[in-house]
Write a structure and sequence with these properties.
With about 290 residues, this protein is of the alpha+beta class. It is built from six helices and 15 strands. The strands form five sheets. The chain has a six-stranded antiparallel β-sheet with strand order 1-8-5-10-3-2. Strands 7-6-9 form a three-stranded antiparallel β-sheet, with no helix packed on it. Bound molecules: 2-oxoglutaric acid.
């Protein structure tokens, strides 16, 4: 059995944008706090957007609809993930250094049911995680664009203990659907232009909408970011002995991210690190 670690009790530290006083007068912080998302153009290099789009198309030609951690093989994907103006923006809004830890490149719409990323990867303290969805081409409404629910970031951060069972499809997804309906949260759809980025707060509920025209691509890159000075967890794999600590790679610095809580260094279990290394090797082989 893999090691899990009992963490010191979570304190009430929150990202800077979540407190009205911390970034007073900052329109982006106010928008992220109110709606749970911000859309911006960070001036990605045209050459990087084109190269990342080509790399993503190659994933499609190999029969996949998405590639995880393509940054390992493609420098343009890595440069988009670690684009300095984007990292500076996120670090300012959160009040801690942002770093990318995972990329997902999509050839076509994912049609993923609404979810919050906090069920897949969370942090202690919570909310120190965000997703950035970059359009690698102009996104058509019929291509199954990203669907999101403004304001839903204020719903509870669910853990497996809050839902009536442990199965993601049978229990988590219907629970989310019911919570969105009960809260009156309305779906909106993102159709950004090439180069625009859609930034979502950790608990904004989102997914992939229905693909209406299967011939259309939806070339896009989602990068997930953590913030320094936290412990990084996988709530879906939480066990009776406590949180599941992730093995996290800081793509911008090219090394494993240190984790700490209450001044104490925290380490993932050895099996987690070995499994993560194995998955990475498989990904490198799959997309080579
Ligand atoms: O792009 C999509 O269709 C969904 C992406 C997503 O849910 C995610 O990366 O967390």
């Amino acid at each position: 059995m893999d090691a899990t670690t009992a963490l010191p009790v979570a304190d009430d530290v929150t990202p800077a944008f979540m407190s009205e006083g911390a970034l007073a007068g900052d329109a982006d912080a106010a928008k992220l706090r109110r709606d749970g998302f911000v859309i911006k153009d960070f001036g990605f290099a045209d050459a990087d957007l084109a190269a990342a789009a080509d790399a993503t198309r190659r994933v499609g030609a190999a029969g996949h609809i998405r590639a995880q951690d393509l940054w390992r093989r493609d420098t343009a994907v890595r440069r988009i993930a670690a684009h300095p103006p984007l990292l500076d923006f996120l670090s300012r809004l959160y009040g801690r250094r942002a770093f990318p830890f995972q990329t997902l490149n999509f050839v076509r719409g994912s049609q993923q049911k609404p979810h919050s990323d906090t069920m897949h990867f969370s942090s202690n303290p919570v909310h120190f995680m965000c997703g950035v969805w970059v359009a690698l081409e102009d996104i058509a409404a019929e291509a199954g664009p990203l669907v999101y629910y403004p304001g839903s970031q204020n719903l509870p951060v669910y853990s497996l203990n809050d839902i009536p069972g442990t199965d993601y499809i049978a229990h988590y997804e219907p629970h989310v659907r019911a919570a969105l309906d009960a809260g009156g949260h309305q779906a909106e759809f993102a159709t950004p232009k090439k180069g625009e980025a859609f930034i979502w707060a950790a608990n904004l509920f989102h997914g992939g909408s229905r693909v209406q025209n299967a011939k259309l691509t939806r070339l896009s890159q989602v990068t997930h970011y953590y913030f320094e000075g936290c412990v990084y967890t996988t709530p879906m794999r939480e066990g009776p002995r406590g949180p599941h600590i992730r093995s996290v790679f800081d793509i911008s610095r090219g090394g494993h991210a240190a984790q700490s809580r209450g001044g104490r260094r925290i380490f993932p279990g050895l099996l987690t690190m070995a499994a993560s290394r194995w998955r990475n090797l498989k990904r490198e082989a799959l997309y080579s």
